[in-house]
Write a structure and sequence with these properties.
Layout: E1 3-4, H1 7-15, E2 23-30, H2 36-46, E3 55-58, E4 68-71, H3 77-80, E5 81-90, H4 92-104, E6 114-122, E7 127-134, H5 147-150, E8 151-152, H6 173-186, H7 188-198, H8 202-205, H9 207-212, H10 214-218, E9 237-245, H11 246-256, H12 260-278, E10 289-299, E11 306-307, E12 325-335, H13 342-358, H14 376-388, E13 397-403, E14 410-411, E15 414-422, E16 431-438, E17 441-449, H15 456-474
Parallel strand pairs: 5-6, 10-13, 13-16
Antiparallel strand pairs: 1-4, 2-7, 2-15, 3-4, 6-7, 8-14, 9-17, 10-11, 10-12, 14-15, 16-17
Helix pairs in contact: 6-7, 11-12, 11-15, 12-13, 12-15
């Protein structure tokens, strides 16, 4: 029997619109060339570890039930792993333009919902690999993102057992309809919710997600402030990146007794403040921008949840019990863009995040966070699932800050130098910010609407200035 999409997966599948492609992106920069043929071989060897990447979505006639995952009997690895090139020597700006164009394109629903691009021609003999996977494909728990299994902790690829893949028989239409009717009789309320999703009423389909975020909703006002971060968006995108040193945030942490996560949010707040001023927007002492921010937390012995500062020094995390339940929690935090003083901004943010973690607001799926590092793209998917369960009127901006390993990773023996998340835009939200720490640095990926956020490069410059402002306050 075919596996049916979960309610959350089906919600993402039907949520997609021409202006809001619902795929997660990941951009990796490698230090030297890897051939297209070698990449094809490497990906094909690891596909057995992510079996859903060989499956496609098949809808049930008349929307009688949620769609099902079926093996793609015509699976063609060369369709999904593609080759592109920049005119040598390709610049980072040219790479970002290419990523923006690729991000703008929806995935082909008649095939498995993922694509990977090997981008050659970068300066200094570097290559880039851009991957996009549909949010229905990656749930952050049972279904992992493909980069999680492609990367190794050493230059010697870990051995993988060769498996001969034989696609299973695809169910006939009559079988799918019969299964759907039986399910509707057994669970009529679920059948009604599925019909609403298929007809475009996603509120019912998102109920499972929304129920998980009730604790967040109770801590916030009904509507977020009015900002230029919320407007009608197109399907076209702009992409920009920022690369910073993790030690800079640790310096702020030691000086002011906050967390690295707090320091990152303070840097973003300072940049957003100056961006609003550069646009001539009215900014008062009480102006805020409400962000939805996933955080790593842990619960031990039935106590309250506490935030895990995953970018802190490893020795500073030794107090966390081995048997602690590690989760990904999310909060709505009002970023104080009206506050002119960087230290006061940091203090207000630290107070808000500390109050949230002490309240025990673990509101998402119980996703493990390994102490030595994580699978960033997979955990960015968790943040997106939380966001989808809330009305977009409740927050202005989604910020996913996911810790990564602090030692080098390798793809088929080639060292990865940089990694940037590319989070999708939600309806009427012009900017999405994804962050990942890796090998001593913090990488920002800014995905923006091409028309409504044409000045996204201004934000990147202001992020560097905001970090310098905090560092100056330390010394």
């Amino acid at each position: 029997m075919a596996t049916r999409l979960t309610t959350q997966d089906a919600t993402f599948y039907f949520l997609e619109a021409s202006s809001t492609p619902m795929h997660l992106g990941s951009l990796a920069i490698l230090e030297s060339g890897i051939s297209y043929e070698d990449l094809l071989t490497h990906v094909e060897q690891r596909l057995a570890l992510v079996p859903r990447y060989r499956q496609r979505v098949r809808e049930v006639a008349l929307g009688l039930a949620r769609p099902v995952w079926v093996d793609d009997r015509e699976f063609d690895i060369t369709y999904h792993v593609r080759r592109s090139a920049l005119p040598r020597p390709g610049s980072d700006a040219q790479l970002h333009d290419l990523v923006a164009r690729l991000t703008s394109r929806p995935l082909d629903r008649s095939r498995p919902l993922w694509e990977m691009y090997l981008v050659e021609g970068l300066s200094d003999n570097r290559v880039a690999i851009f991957t996009k996977s549909h949010s229905a494909l990656v749930d952050g728990d049972k279904a992992s993102e493909i980069s999680q299994v492609l990367l190794d902790p050493s230059s010697t690829p870990r051995p993988v057992v060769d498996e001969l893949w034989m696609p299973t028989r695809e169910p006939r239409e009559a079988e799918l309809v019969l299964d759907a009717l039986v399910e509707m009789i057994a669970r009529p309320s679920e059948g009604a919710a599925t019909l609403r999703m298929a007809l475009g009423d996603l509120a019912g389909g998102a109920a499972e997600v929304a129920g998980n975020v009730a604790a967040v909703v109770r801590t916030a006002a009904v509507s977020a402030p009015t900002t230029p971060l919320n407007a009608t968006i197109s399907r076209n995108r702009r992409f920009a990146t920022v690369r910073t040193e993790l030690e800079d945030y640790r310096t702020v942490r030691r000086r002011f007794g906050c967390t690295v996560n707090d320091a990152i949010l303070a840097v973003l707040t300072g940049a957003l403040r100056n961006w609003l001023l550069s646009r001539g927007e009215p900014v008062t002492a009480y102006s805020t921008v409400r962000a939805l921010v996933p955080m790593a937390t842990y619960v031990s012995g039935g106590g309250a949840a506490e935030e895990i500062d995953m970018e802190a020094d490893p020795a500073e995390r030794e107090h966390i019990p081995d048997n602690a339940e590690r989760k990904v929690s999310s909060l709505l935090v009002d970023l104080p863009v009206g506050e002119p003083n960087a230290v006061v901004r940091l203090s207000q943010i630290a107070h808000a995040t500390e109050a949230h973690s002490r309240a025990g607001g673990t509101v998402t799926a119980q996703t493990l966070v390994r102490m030595s590092g994580t699978a960033p793209a997979t955990l960015h998917a968790v943040g997106l699932r939380v966001a989808s369960g809330l009305s977009q009127r409740m927050f202005n901006l989604m910020i996913t800050n996911v810790p990564g390993p602090q030692s080098p990773l390798y793809l088929d023996g080639v060292r990865m130098l940089e990694m940037y998340p590319v989070s999708p835009l939600l309806k009427n939200q012009t900017l999405s910010v994804g962050l990942t720490s890796y090998d001593g640095r913090v990488y920002y990926g800014l995905n923006a609407d091409r028309d409504a956020m044409s000045d996204v490069e201004v934000v990147t410059a202001l992020l560097y200035e905001s970090l310098e402002e905090l560092l100056d306050a330390c010394g």
